[in-house]
Design brief:
Structural class: alpha/beta
Strand content: 5-15%
CATH class of the largest domain: Alpha Beta
Shape: globular
CATH topology of the largest domain: Rossmann fold
Radius of gyration: 20 Å
Helix content: 40-55%
Length: 361
Amino acid sequence: MPKTSTEDRAWISEAIRRVDADANRSADTHLHPFPLDMHGIDLYLKDESVHPTGSLKHRLARSLFLYALCNGWVCRDTTIIEASSGSTAVSEAYFARLVDLPFVAVMPASTSPEKIALIEFHGGRCHLIDDPGAVYDEARRLAAECNGHYMDQFTYAERATDWRGNNNIAESIYEQMREERHPIPAWIVVGAGTGGTSATIGRFIRYRRFDTRVGVADPEGSAFLDGWVSDDVGVTTTTPSRIEGIGRMRVEPSFVSGVIDDMVRVPDAASIATMRWVSRVLNRPVGGSTGTNMWAALGVVEKMRQSGETGSVVTLLCDGGERYTHTYYNDTWLEEHGIDISTYATALDELEKTGVLPEVS
């Protein structure tokens, strides 16, 4: 890579100012208590859908852009390339336009049309491929072809964010929990995704010496759980996850297994049933990954109840449900994919009545 010129240094300085200004004029996201009596255990949702680009990935995209700019990887004529299942690409398209750079998202052809439309709305271009496992190589190829920069969220998510603080998501959660009756959560439950969120939260917890445990929810078709159990980063799967944004066919480089206290496999039917149930309880649509997180968090709450524990549990509302009207909210789509949510929906109805989550076989 050639040395950075004086003109490029000036451009980078201005780009960083624009990204910082975006953060400065954006309020923090809300922390909502979930309105359900669960026998002395309080459940909270950290609402990441209120970011300017509508998802948790806004934080990641901002960090990735700052990391690439400060490393000198991105200059005034650089085309930004990213491999994504959708939400990160939406957020990166937003930041690319903010600093006047072209953006190309390499994504599976199965990505929801709502996400594709959002990327294009923010000025990005979508490059769709049939094989979800090939997005990484295709992104690298495109970056080399146009002398661009492959942002590579799956490698850099765990290192681009300052896990010691600097208003990362973990610091925000603990600050917002400060006046609650159980201010130090017993558990924080998140999806695997890139691995960056669990790494940031887990490291922050250790750094601040909190007793909170980290739980990670992994959907069907994802490799993270098996890799964590076997302590093998080479684990792969043969079929992609149907829950966009959190399941991967390989253990991504940003996944830091040592900060995780427990993991759980969440069936797709449970994710979608819980997504729809949460949407009804909150009177607002949420996305599929929120359903995955919530099902796992509700399982944690039930185990705490059975053992006589009280305390608080925090999980994430990752994005809004408007992005999934053609998929998870579409009964025809569920039938086409052989997903029957009725058993889980019945269990959630029972939870709502009694505060007890029945076991689902």
